[in-house]
Design brief:
- The protein is an alpha+beta fold.
- Among the domains are: 3-79 and 112-188 and 283-348, FAD/NAD(P)-binding domain (3-Layer(bba) Sandwich), CATH 3.50.50.60; 433-525, Glutaredoxin.
- Helix content is 31%, strand content 26%.
- The longest helix is centred in the middle third of the chain and has 26 residues, at 340-365.
- The radius of gyration is 25 Å and the shape is globular.
- Residues 530-547 have low confidence and may be disordered.
Length: 547
Amino acid sequence: MNDLQVSLIDAAIQTDVIIIGAGPTGLSLGCQLVRYGIDFVIVEKNEGVTPYSKALGVHARTLEIYEQLGLAQQAVEQGAIARKARLLKGGKVRAELELSNLGAGLTTYPYVLFFEQSKNEQLLYDYLKRNGKTVRWQTELASFSQTEEKVTAYVNTADGASQLIEAKFLVGCDGPKSPVRHGLGLEFAGSTFERMFYVADARIDWDLPHDALHVCLLKDSLLVFFPLKGEHRYRIVGTFPEEFSKDEGEVLYAEIEQRIQEEVELKLDVHDVEWFSTYKVHSRHVSQFWAGRCFLAGDAAHIHSPVGAQGMNTGIQDGYNLAWKLALVLKGKADKTILETYNQERLENAKHLLQTTDRMFQVAAGSDWLLAFLRTHILPLIAPYILRLDPVKKFLFPLLLQIGINYRRSWLSQHAGDEHFKVKAGDRMPYFLVEGQSIYDKLRQPKFHWLVFSDTQDDFQALKTELENQDTEFVDFNVIPLYPQVAEVFDMNNSFNVLLRPDNYIAFISTEASLNRVKIYLNELTKSSGLLPASIFTKTKRERKSP
């Protein structure tokens, strides 16, 4: 062993989790680990949070996650709610859609929030700093390896030095070109859209009010204007036609502006462009989200069409799903086999997400003649009426804004007893009001939540005392009257109870008001499920040069 190796070992940083990448996924994962009291180190090759707006839409499920961090209201105040959408064709407004209350009765946040990625990153980074954590900026992963006991990573710092970090787990939140994914040798299969996308943030002077997103209905391309915070500021997203032959990086801004002018068919002035970019869209996901003690999240694990604004939100949910499972394992409250459910749950979601975004792109900009006809001639006539129908709202909103994601097929979802309920194990906890307050106000602690819904006058003090006498300090207990709205949401008129996971997905529903099933469920988490073969702990090492 040479002197350099000895000095690296002596100066090794010891932590629980190494997070590679400080975009929205890595930062939000760190914020979740703060809630659970888990130590971590975040390394990021860039010098700070992105100065570019990049991803724009923040969905209801993300705001529910932010709510647990105390950040949701700040995000809403700094962002712009999508209140309306106007459909444009031939230089005229053909229809106007009301969007601000699409998800009424389904969440505290029944809308899409336009809140740029740069602002999301700053919001999350400020949370970390307030809680005594930071990011090791200008620090790049050089190599990593793992054994059954730990992960070892070598990183290069801004001054050219090499630093050794040892941890129990490593999470690659390092983007679509993910060095962690390459180091693990995981397949990233999929396809590439032939269309060239463009995006720009600019000021637009035109006669249309700055109170809505504006969608141009075109035969074979996409063009949408999203209102941003600030006077007349917009995000412009569009595509060139299929016959456009230039590659990424060859497109001049003048070509983008010319394209906008031609397709809008309105008098407008686009100026004060803050940034613009062109890119080809890939639709890919990894073969699995983990290997041994290493995990992937966000764009490192899945990339897809920007239609529907799913990317940033999905990465944040990846971290939300993984954080509590890592915390239970690190605190000895669960066997490491629970980590397999991260792959099980989020891989299924990624596959469904890619299918959904591909279909959405075809509907929004596909060149098929029938879709083009429906989009340009029929949609403006029927959309305002369709969106007023409650069944349509209850289908579209959960699908687009991610509150409809479920883990019903996860082995963490126990279905015995949920046969007679409308809501099933693996579903997100439904939203409803309790004495004028959201049920989610009771679910902010980073714990399991045992909720007893009762139509009796019992105070359940004996049950609460029994729970407190057990080694279950990570289980919260609430008794809630069986209000009519609760009975309606669950389709159950008799007393029942629900055990929620720390991410507020339902573990089980039962009509048996005793502690037995809760104890059995939690005890099972500490046992090996046999899902993870010993061979997963393969030694993996990679060396790479800076790009």
